[in-house]
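Supplementary Text 2. Reproducibility record for the structural model of the 253-residue chain.

All settings were left at their defaults, and a single model was retained for analysis rather than an ensemble. We include the record here because the model underlies the residue-level annotations in Supplementary Table 4.
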Amino acid sequence: MEFAGKVVGWFTDPVNWSGNDGIPIRLAEHLVLSATPLVIALVIGLPLAAWVGHTGRFAGLAINVTNVGRAIPSLAIMALAAMLMSRLLVDIGLRREAGEISTIVAMAALAIPPIVTNTYVGISEVERELVEAARAMGMTASQVLRRVELPLALPVILAGVRTAAVQVVATATLGAVFGTGGIGRYIIDGIAQRKDEEVFAGALIVAALSIGTELVFAMIQRRTVSAGLRGSSTTAPREPAQGGRADSAFLPR
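Retained model, structure tokens:
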């Protein structure tokens, strides 16, 4: 009970709600640190996976590469990005931004695999009869992709984006190890100063933020996908590839 009182006291302390180290500022930093790599991952992974799923080319290579990315621990990816990019960023005068940029690059690398895998699976599993019917109606390859395959694969694609978003929000906390802002600062600083209530409060905020992200993307999925297609999304796994390998169901056709 004494510890719970300290946690409540930390949240109710006005000092923790104002200034550059206040919860609103740290929360805004965390959201930017999470949203930026997610957008980058979407820009890179979604078109690539859509093309692979539509054409069937390099499918095995794409799935295996993304599975390798999923097998590498998050902290290891962030450490590698920090070591490889820090010197370059310092040389071009971005010493202060080195931690943020390295973290964003690492987070984008973590977000790409679920987006690529789900997009590929969703498009490649569209009924071939529907695709052939669209072609018979005179649609070009790009029209088939835009008007038939992508809409039908939308539930699975959004499930991958949802997974990536939650993973990035939760893992962005580790960016504080490399000097970034965000909620992770409370955990790192709390450990350094032996303030267990601050560590617990930071972890609680991150957990709440991750759950909130899950709920927001679930709502987006419900609003953007028709009722008929939402039912079909339950037949495809949320995270198609586990354990750093591709299951046989996701091998190229």
